[in-house]
Amino acid sequence: MMQQLDQLAAGSALAREDLSMFGHDPWWLVVIKAVFCFAFLMLTVLFSIVWERKVVAWMQLRIGPNRHGPWGMLQSLADGIKLMLKEDLVVKRADKVVYILAPVVAAIPAFMAIAVIPFGPAGNEISIFGVRTPMQLTDLPIGILYILATASVGIYGIVLAGWSSGSTYPLLGGLRSCAQMISYEIAMGMSFAAVFLYSGSMSTSTIVESQHNRWYVLLLPVSFIIYIVAMVGETNRAPFDMPESEGDLVGGFNTEYSSIKFAMFMLAEYVNMVTVSAVAITLFLGGWRAPWPISTFWEGANHGWWPLLWFTLKVQLLLFFFIWLRGTLPRVRYDQFMKLGWKVLIPVSLVWLMLVATVRALKNEGYNFSQIVLYVAGGAVALLLISLLVDFFRRGEATEETDGDEAFDPMAGGFPVPPLPGQELPPVPRRRPRGDRELIVSGRVDTVSDDNAHDGKGGDGA
């Protein structure tokens, strides 16, 4: 086991970026590959919408779509046609130019990230009309940074949609989306950095090639978990769908939109789900490679058109994870959501990145695996002990400070506020017996009991 890890680390450190096979396709082949990427996203979105409604219906013991097409598979296509044919309304108080451009700004970047995702091995080219070409539109030495950049631009569409609508609730939804993007892209970027350290590259094809012995989900499990949480927050999906929470924002940033512009926001959300799933597969789940049991006994599993099948199946599994979360978990409070991003994900990702960098540095210095584990484990235990001691003394100081304070009043400032550390809410008053309750009429307290009021002795309080 130790020798395998040593060989894997040495091989990934020597990984080279060979992008010479890109940039030589004729223009008509580039168009075909671009149309394929667009069609792959659109068909996956149409299937995912129906699949989500079916899976959630099965979880709730319902039937789900079952009218349009076999097993209701054409329901999302019918919904798209219906939205295109509905009346398109423009709000009077809206900023017309920004209001119309916002759905476009949200949708177009969602399609752009798929350009650098490998659907198959770059070295094993396929033949399209007699021309040999890799199963990838293009690749860049900084392909992952390109994906992060396009994801960041897409958020502007949601923010501008909320601002340009001229309404309060869409504005709040846009501001929430902006805060989510800032909070969760930091943790997402640091989870990517751990992959860069092991693969030695930011190129998507090189990262997949460096996982030929073992997928990074096994070597970097903390980075994978952080990315999974961050990608759910980035796509505004339940339980993190704060920008469009129906309970308190009616519909959020898209409240004032209708017809095709509303459909473009929904399209951008589902395309982003496919994109972040594809990025997770590329970075942590071996990309287009066949799963472990198949790749061991079938040598041709990673050649020809078969990698496209494995890639598609992995995408569908991660989309099922999105659906499962939506049907299982309730929406969290916004303060809980921000606390998770700033106080949990970012510190954990920072510490994990330091550990990964330490392991890589020690490996480059020639230390063996047992020594690396000893040093890293010792440092982790020391940090845990220090944090426990600091937390213990902080709790003691907070208890001493609050011992002499007055009782906590949650309505002291006129608005309900949660208690600070060390404070406790007052006990909830219990319902008094019927004979002891006071009857309040027209803003006045009537001391006559309910029984006397029914007997006619309560005066005007009766």
Keywords:
two-stranded antiparallel ribbon, single chain, transmembrane, mainly alpha, 462 residues
For the largest beta-sheet, the strand count, sense and barrel status come to: 2 strands, antiparallel
Task: Report the C-alpha radius of gyration, rounded.
Answer: 28 Å
Strand tally is 4
Strand order of the largest sheet: 1-2
- In terms of DSSP E residues, the strand content is under 5%
Global structural class: mainly alpha
Q: Low-confidence parts lasting 5 or more residues at pLDDT below 50? A: 1-15, 445-450, 456-462
Oligomer: single chain
- Run of helices and strands: HHHHEEHHHHHHHHHHHEEH
End-to-end separation in angstroms reads: 84 Å
Shape: globular
Average pLDDT works out at 81
How many individual helices? 16
Word description of this protein:
- The structure is a single chain.
- With 462 residues, the chain is mainly alpha-helical.
- It is 61% helix and 3% strand.
- It has 16 helices and four strands.
- The strands form two sheets. The protein has a two-stranded antiparallel ribbon. The chain has a two-stranded antiparallel ribbon with strand order 3-4.
- The longest helix has 35 residues, at 369-403.
Offer a quick outline of the entry.
With 462 residues, the protein is mainly alpha-helical. The protein is globular.
Topology:
Layout: H1 2-13, H2 27-59, H3 75-85, H4 96-112, E1 126-128, E2 131-133, H5 143-164, H6 168-199, H7 204-209, H8 216-219, H9 221-234, H10 246-249, H11 259-284, H12 292-297, H13 306-328, H14 334-364, H15 369-403, E3 439-441, E4 444-446, H16 450-454
Antiparallel strand pairs: 1-2, 3-4
Helix pairs in contact: 2-11, 2-13, 3-11, 4-5, 4-11, 5-6, 5-11, 6-9, 6-14, 9-11, 9-14, 11-13, 14-15
Organism: Streptomyces kronopolitis
InterPro entries: NADH_UbQ_OxRdtase_su1/FPO (IPR001694), NADH_UbQ_OxRdtase_su1_CS (IPR018086)
Biased composition (Pro residues): 416-428
